[in-house]
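Next up, sample data.

:::
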Amino acid sequence: MSTAALRPAVPLLVLIIAGCIIAAIGNGVRTSFGLFTLPMTSDLGLTRESWGMAMAIQNLAWGIAQPFAGAFADRVGTGRTVAVGALIYALGVLGMAFSPSAGLLTITAGIVTGVGIAICSFSVVMAAFGRSVPMEKRSLIFGVATAASSFGQFAFAPISQGFINAFGWQSALVYLTMALLLIIPLSYALRGRTETPAGHADLPFMEALAKAWGHGSYKLLVIGFFVCGFHLAFINVHMPAYLVQCGLSPEVGSWTIAVIGLFNIAGSLLAGYLGGKLPKQLMLATIYFSRAVAIGLFMLFPVSEWTAYAFAAAMGLLWLSTVPLTAGLVSLFFGARYMGMLYGVAFFSHQLGSFMGVWLGGFVYDMTGAYDLVWYLGVVLGLASAALHIPINERSVPNFSLKPA
C-alpha cells in the first residue's frame, strides 16, 4: 500500500497550525467540564450520579458518533465536517448553560455536546493530517496534534475557573460557546478528502470494519483503548471534586487539570517522536503499566496540594500519549484511506471506557461517599491493558482493500 501523501488544499504548515488550534479549543472546552461539577450540582440540586450520567452519556454519544464522523470526513471532506461539528458542539454547550434539570442536561451536555465533539474532534483533524503527511512522519505529527489539544486543556482549565469565579457557571458556559465558534472559520484550512488509491476498492463501512476486525492486532488495540478512556474521563470529571473532598480548594482542582494538560504536551510530543523509532505496541504497554503505578502510588500517600500536582504531572506525561501511537498503528495497519473510520471505531471503545469511568465514579461516590473503589479499579485495568498490547504485531495488513484480479 502506498505511503505517499496527498497534496493538501492549503500549504501543509497552514493545515497543521489550523488543525492544532481546532484541537486545542475543542479539547480545552471539553476538559473544563469537571470544574462545573460542584457549582452546577449545588445550584441545580443534582446528585453526583446524575451529573456523572450526563457526562457519561456525552462520552458515549461521542464514541458512537465518532466512526460515522470519521467515515463522513473520509468521503465528503474534513473541513465541512469539522465546521458542522463545531456548530453542534457550541449549541450543546449553550444548551448546557440553560438546562435546569438532570433530564435536560443529559440531552444538552450529554447527547448534543457529545455528537458535536465527535464531529469536530482531533480524531477527525488527524485524518486530515494522515492523508497529507508522509507515513514516516505521521506519528510525529499526530503527536504534535495531541500536544496541541493538551495545550488547550492547560489553557482552558484556569480560564474556565476564572470565568466561574468572576461571572458564575452559567455565563462561563456562554463564553466557552463563543470560543467554540472560532473553529468554524479555521476548518476551511482542512478542506479536502482522502482519495482511494488506484487499484483499491472503496469499501463500504461495514465491509471495511469486518475486514479490519478480523485482524487480531487491531482487535487487541481496540479493546485496550477502553482503559485509556476509563482513566481519562474519571480523572478529568471527578478529580476536582475528589480534591475538594480531601480538603483542598477548587483552584487546586483546576490547576491539577491544567498541570495534566501542560505535562501532556511533552508526553504527546515524546510519544509521537518515539513512535517512529520504537515498537508502538510496547510503548503503549509501558504507558498503561506506568499509569497503574502512578494511580497506585497516589492512593498510598496522603492527598495534599503537592501530591496532587505530582500525580497530575505523572499522569500528564501518560495522558494522551496513547493517541499518536494508537492512531499510528491504525494508519500503519490499513492506510490513510480508512483511518478516520477505523480509528473512530477504536475511539468508540475508548469512549465506552469513558462512559464507565464517569458514570461509575458518580455511582460509587453516591453509594459509598468516596471514590476509592474506582481508583483501585483503574490500577487493575491499567495492568490488564498493558498485557493486551504486548502481542500486537506492528505491520501493515496486506491487500486490505485491493480489488479482486
